[in-house]
Design a protein that fits this description.
Helix content: 55-70%
Radius of gyration: 39 Å
Strand content: 5-15%
Strand order of the largest sheet: 7-6-8-9-10-11
Largest sheet: 6 strands, parallel
Number of strands: 11
Shape: rod-shaped
């Protein structure tokens, strides 16, 4: 009840002051005329106090309760006084004004006849000195003024609500603009990383290849100058990407949410409290952006649709997930319709294998809960790599490309299989990127020795040509994957991570050859039957197959002529059916029998 009082406008306090003054003067007058009462004075006095207080408390609950209490208590008191003192009928004039000012919707249909017609007729009969028509006109005039005052209050309240919502919308638009700009800068940095950075690396590899074909000293000097210029240009691009992509990195999750709350409170009159539970840890950009958007949409809806005056935000750092709860004291709703904003929140969370729940009930506000699994420990794990290739410029180019990923660490470079085995003996890497055609010891033989001595070391064959015989031999010797050097950098990164986590990776360009070699058609059908045990549709199986090859969502969408969002929705459905959290677990569970 008192929370409603906190939301009063100036005219609500004016009406209360008017009521206090009127009731006080009425009680004082009753004290002077107490000798003429037909009932004990204390009963009349308590009646007056009840007529003042009870309708006011009823008004905080519902206007209909107020109208009934006001007509029965105040109206009854006025009738009693008019029977004793005919001139006291004027005490009903302020009551008529307040009844009119607090009526709403269809209550005028019954409050107006009772106030303007029925009670004046009863007053005229009891007083027997004032004409009923005159009394009806006088009370009707006060009732009309009260109705006009009610319209003024409604208009003022709506204007205030519109003004507050406009301020909230302006703040929301500014936040959306800023976050959209940050997302676009992040996308731009990634696109430049995958295009310009890859182009520079390809130029370096090409120039290194030309070095062996240039015999004159002048030609060698020109090649060296071009290499130096290209490396300097690549360094400039890296510095630029770091500058573009790091604008948001300085803020932690809690700092970004606190800034959002502070900006929101600046533009609105809503009280917002932000609190945390558990020990804070670092989350990825995607998780931070999803929680930020969820909070932004929740607090905006709480004011725009729920008319909330207070919002409590709780951020829970748990062992396996991070949860954001947004509770408001707004109007609430029985059947909350999911709009564009709520659907966008759910889609963002679904892309990270998370969920968004909304609980709402009339009179109890709305609770929005966004839960995201904690995947940072896996994502931040450093993968130690050994690069094995007989050509120096290939090794250097791969090192340049792979070192751009924060979770990759290059622990060594080897020229042939013998050096690779020696490196593994000294400092066992997580993944070995192995070339096939090398002097002294080729990649297939080196793979066999490494897998025999250190079964936990993953070997990913990375070669230039589709060398079927060597590929089959390497896979027979225990290789964990086979990719071509022409693979896109991002797919190469994902392939290394998948192999490190135990997933078999074979480039699609050679898959058919291997199937023909092993005559694996029956096994493929068994694999499909096994996957269908989880109720996967043919389209979901097709997308799961693409995921097993390390393809990104955009690449899958382009291949299958679908939108990026549709592919993400399919992936979320696949994860849910398999009971897993990410693509690595899905591939391992669905195709585990092939490993």
């Amino acid at each position: 009840m008192f929370n409603l009082v906190k939301q009063w406008f100036w005219y609500d306090w004016l009406v209360l002051l008017f009521r206090i003054c009127f009731s006080t003067s009425l009680l004082i007058t009753m004290c002077y005329l107490s000798d003429d009462f037909t009932i004990p004075f204390w009963i009349a006095f308590v009646w007056g106090l009840i007529a003042f207080s009870v309708p006011w408390f009823c008004l905080q609950l519902h206007y209909k309760y107020y109208l009934i209490a006001e007509i029965l208590l105040s109206g009854g008191l006025c009738l009693y006084l008019a029977a004793l003192f005919p001139e006291s009928y004027v005490t009903f004039l302020p009551t008529a004004f307040m009844i009119a000012s607090n009526s709403a919707q269809k209550s005028y249909r019954w409050s107006a006849p009772i106030t303007v017609i029925l009670i004046p007729i009863l007053l005229s009969r009891l007083s027997q000195q004032v004409d009923a028509v005159s009394m009806i006109l006088n009370i009707g005039l006060l009732y009309t003024l009260g109705f006009a005052f009610h319209l003024l209050m409604v208009n003022h309240k709506q204007s205030g609500i519109i003004k507050d919502q406009n301020a909230v919308l302006e703040q929301y638009i500014s936040q959306v603009e800023r976050m959209t700009l940050l997302e676009e800068r992040d996308r731009l940095s990634k696109d430049l990383h995958d295009t310009v950075g890859h182009s520079y690396t390809s130029i370096l590899m090409g120039l290194e290849t030309l070095r062996t074909e240039v015999n004159t000293s002048d030609g060698a000097q020109k090649i060296d100058a071009l290499l130096k210029l290209t490396r300097n240009g690549l360094d400039d691009v890296r510095r630029y990407l770091h500058h573009v992509g790091s604008s948001q990195d300085s803020l932690t999750l809690m700092q970004s949410l606190q800034k959002l709350v502070d900006d929101f409170q600046t533009f609105s009159k809503v009280k917002v409290r932000l609190r945390t539970f558990g020990e804070a840890y670092t989350v990825s950009k995607q998780v931070q952006m999803t929680l930020y958007r969820c909070l932004q949409e929740s607090i905006t809806n709480a004011v725009r649709h729920g008319q909330a005056s207070e919002i409590v935000i709780s951020l829970h750092y748990e062992e396996k997930l991070i949860r954001l709860d947004v509770q408001d004291n707004g109007l609430g709703a029985e059947d909350l319709t999911a709009g564009f904003g709520l659907n966008a929140m759910k889609e963002r969370a679904s892309n990270l294998q998370g969920q968004v729940y909304v609980y709402s009930k009339p009179g109890e506000g709305t609770l929005v809960t966004c839960s995201l699994p904690r995947l940072e420990e896996i994502q931040e794990e450093t993968v130690r790599l050994l690069l094995v290739d007989d050509q120096p410029y290939i090794r250097d180019s791969l090192r340049i490309i792979l070192e751009q990923e924060p979770d990759f660490e290059i622990i060594g470079l080897a020229e042939n299989g013998e050096q690779a085995v020696s490196f593994c003996e000294q400092d066992q890497p997580h993944v070995v990127l192995m070339d096939l055609n090398m002097p002294d010891m080729d990649g297939a033989e080196a793979t066999k020795l490494i897998k025999q001595k250190w079964p936990g070391v993953r070997v990913l064959i990375l070669t230039t040509f589709q060398e079927t015989d060597l590929a089959v031999e390497a896979l027979q010797n225990g290789a964990d994957g086979y990719l071509l050097k022409s693979t896109e950098p991002q797919e190469l990164f994902e392939g290394i991570r998948l192999v490190h986590r135990g997933v078999k990776m074979i480039t699609p360009a050679i898959t058919n050859v291997l199937i023909d070699h092993y005559e694996m058609h029956p096994t493929s059908e068994a694999q499909t039957e096994q996957s269908n045990e989880y109720g996967l549709t043919p389209r979901e199986l097709e997308i799961l197959e693409c995921l097993s090859k390390g393809m990104r969502y955009k690449s899958i969408a382009a291949k299958l002529y679908l939108s990026d969002g549709t592919v993400r929705n399919y992936a979320s459905t696949i994860y849910a059916k398999l009971g897993v959290r990410n693509r690595e677990e899905a591939v391992e569970k669905a195709f585990g029998t092939l490993e």
